[in-house]
């Protein structure tokens, strides 16, 4: 099975490594090419120096030999050094018989072959150049110090390669920063897409996107528009269904109540009471189902941030007849959030209704909205087991209570919470208490723009 390419990972990291690696590879290739060219040039220069030394020594040797021609058996003359220095090119002058007639002060006879050929040649450890003059009677050979030119090439290559040690970390860091700056619009584009969801389908708008990514932005916005239309159609259907369903149920309930009032005591009136109760349950169930559809299908994020405190006060006012409720609001008296106000009202109503129905009626329900967006409802009552807490958000599951209900209130709260990317938490006993149940939801906060 073939591995996927390119491998998964950060585009910034891959670009930084690729660009830095490419620069390093080009630099190394350039260093190798420069080394080869430098070696050729050094060979030419050093060979020219050998040839120049021989050609300059040859007239001097010829004159010296003529002056000493009478003393044929004398020792070879060693040219004295003008000052202490190391000779990189040495030479020896010999006659046809191989006797040394003249040599430089650092010359080592062991480096010079006995019968060198005319021109350039390579000795055991050095480069040689030989000139044969005066019908073969004078032989001048110059030798380069062993390893001299190789050392010059190595030193030159080292000077070219050393910058890589400093360039490598600087290149990686510089390329990383450059790629990060270049990819900043793409990163912002990614964050904008990640922020979208069923509750937030506003068009994505990122400035300075590269031309290669701009079509992706258009495609994403087109997809957002299609999803938005679908959700708007669903929301419209939900609203219309709520109106159409409530009207006949309300009419049937009114007729049943009127019929109950008109009938005398007896079996017929008792059956009318049962019909009335069934219609009330149907009305409550239809209301909860419509709220659940609203929580799961419609947009939960508003177009603009809104203060949720007025919606909470309105819900508390509607439920004031059902029981006592204590409320704690943010110190500023407001909490601005991106959560849709209708969705928050549904969430708050279901949590508070659930606490009023299933809590101890002798003690008030405590509702709190903090500055950081933590919305909690504490209902008085006994401590609940973890097994019971784990089933509280299941649909149509109700505890051991005689209170009427559909078993959908906490399911609706969970659907809204999941739609805004949060979680619902159940704590029993409640925080700071020995009993009771606390249900908490973290709401998304936002900054309300002035004017």
TrEMBL record:
Gene3D superfamilies: 1.10.287.130, Histidine kinase-like ATPase, C-terminal domain, Sensor protein qsec. Keywords: ATP-binding, Kinase, Membrane, Nucleotide-binding, Phosphoprotein, Transferase, Transmembrane, Transmembrane helix, Two-component regulatory system. InterPro entries: HAMP_dom, HATPase_C_sf, HATPase_dom, His_kinase_dom, HisK_dim/P_dom, HisK_dim/P_sf, TCS_sensor_his_kinase. One of its GO terms (cellular component) is plasma membrane. It comes from the Bacteria. CDD domains: HATPase, HisKA. It is a multi-pass membrane protein. Coiled coil: none annotated. PROSITE patterns: HAMP, HIS_KIN. It is found in: Membrane. Residues 240-447 form the Histidine kinase domain. This is histidine kinase. Its main location: membrane. Its EC number is 2.7.13.3. The chain crosses the membrane at residues 15-38, 159-183. One of its GO terms (molecular function) is phosphorelay sensor kinase activity. SMART domains: HATPase_c, HisKA. It comes from Bosea vaviloviae. Residues 180-232 form the HAMP domain. It catalyses: ATP + protein L-histidine = ADP + protein N-phospho-L-histidine.
